[in-house]
Amino acid sequence: MSGSPLPAVASSDLARHVAQGLRRTPKTLSSMYFYDDAGSQLFQQIMALPEYYPTRTEFGLLTRHQAAISQALRPSNLAEPFFLLELGAGDGLKTKILLRHLLDTGASFTYVPVDISAAAIDGLVVSLHQELPELRVEPQVSDYATALTRMAARPGRKAVLFLGSNIGNFLPADRREFLRKLAQPLTPDDRLLIGFDLQKDPRQIRAAYDDAQGVTAAFNLNLLTRLNRELGADFDLTSWQHYTDYDPLSGAVRSYLVSTREQRVRIDALDETVAFDAWEVIHTENSYKFTRHIIQQAATEAGLEVAHFFTDEHDYFADVVLAP
Ligand code: AVJ
């Protein structure tokens, strides 16, 4: 033993994150930690919910504009090889539209799906081998930053996909830094395709994060189950509830876990007991919604041009091609 009072597990990323996050005011945990295997499965269920419009809207958008989007991402010389990197690939259902189209047009590329869930990546690789056996795949289980650093070190043209409005999880300052880091290693022929959920009827947005079946609540609460399992915590799930709201001024959906009574929670891996007041919250997620103006501004700040702006028929969602 090193003499540290903390058990070895406390040095994990999750343990460090929880120790810091629960010391803050307000207490905060990152939505990145939703995606253990159970969380990834719950997110699959969210994507199929009647209230959760983003996935099916972006699916329709990609189907409708697949030819133009594929053309905007690949080199004009079809023989020229390139990497198609996808951050947060998940089940790849939407991406398969583009993969199929690119293969059909004879493009020469390697698909590099990146996800923090090993189970999600495993499932994706199996389905790709079955459905698109001729596709070259280099799967990667890692966070975004690691994937970007690795990709930047490899020569060759790149198209980077960041779909599903995953970018909405970043706070504005973090988004600026992320886009700058994403843009910085790109060469003039590289492209980004980023999905942005657009601002719309506030009630429609709010309903998407507070579904009638309670799947989103289960997804949020699963974070506590994860802490119980992985950090030896004793969160009593009957004393917590999911709460979410959309603020049209900031464009943010904010999601919380609410402590419904005064309580103390033991976290073995941190050798700590955390006190919660009645109705105190843990802020667990931001899901920002965008306007064309904000997207244009974000691109400019990162030194990028908006090359194409694709939307669905209702203007619910945008897939935007960005170029250095
Ligand atoms: C995967 C980040 C796009 O913010 O809409 C869905 C996650 N959270 N319902 C989103 C989520 C609650 C989702 N993203």
From TrEMBL:
InterPro entries recorded: EgtD, EgtD_Methyltrsf_superfamily, MeTrfase_dom, MeTrfase_EgtD-like, SAM-dependent_MTases_sf
Coiled coil feature spans: none
The protein's Enzyme Commission number: 2.1.1.44
GO biological process, one term: methylation
Annotated Histidine-specific methyltransferase SAM-dependent domain residues: 15-322
Keywords: Methyltransferase, Transferase
Gene Ontology terms, MF aspect: L-histidine N(alpha)-methyltransferase activity
Origin: domain of life: Bacteria
Protein name, per record: L-histidine N(Alpha)-methyltransferase
Biological classification of the source: Bacteria, Pseudomonadati, Bacteroidota, Cytophagia, Cytophagales
